[in-house]
Amino acid sequence: MKHVFFRSILLLAYAGACTLAVAANPLSVHILDLQSGQPTPGVTVTLEQKKGDDWKQLSSAVTNAQGRIAAMYPVDAPMQAGDYRIVFQTGEHYARLKQETFFPEIPVQFHVEKTDQHYHIPLLLSPFGFSTYRGN
User: What does the angle CA 65 – CA 71 – CA 75 come to, to the nearest 5 degrees?
Assistant: First the structure.
């Protein structure tokens, strides 16, 4: 009886993990201010998808207190293969700090082939430079 009980718990845990993996949003972002070493809250970020020669906005959100947006992709649609662009409105962050910046807006274009994976785009930010990469 004990064996059946523990087996049931393991199956429930596995099912829960699978549900979370399927339900998780396929795209997240994070901004870290390298000058202060702190997360960058309050920055508007938009997601766009390339359609022909034009860009169509899919979503927009604002970074939280940890500088993150955990669910950037629209929740009512599965991610499609194609070209995307994340646009970080970093000028508003530096305007709040009353600090000059060379990059008031940072567009990051990327291509998605595997729609069953999670894509994380971190932005390492300073007033006169930035770096990004595909995280997980």
Answer: 145
From 2.60.40.180, 2.60.120.10, 3.40.1170.20, 3.30.950.10, which CATH number describes the 26-132 domain?
Answer: 2.60.40.180
Q: Tens digit of pLDDT for each residue in 33-42? A: 998 999 999 9
What is the per-residue pLDDT across 52-105, written as a single tens digit (0 to 9) for each?
999 999 999 999 999 999 999 999 889 999 999 999 999 999 999 999 999 999
Name the strand (E) or helix (H) holding 69.
strand 68-69
Closest CA to 103 of 81, 125, 78, 119: 125
The dihedrals phi and psi of 103, each to the nearest 5 degrees, come to: -120, 85
Residue for token digits 């500088």? 67
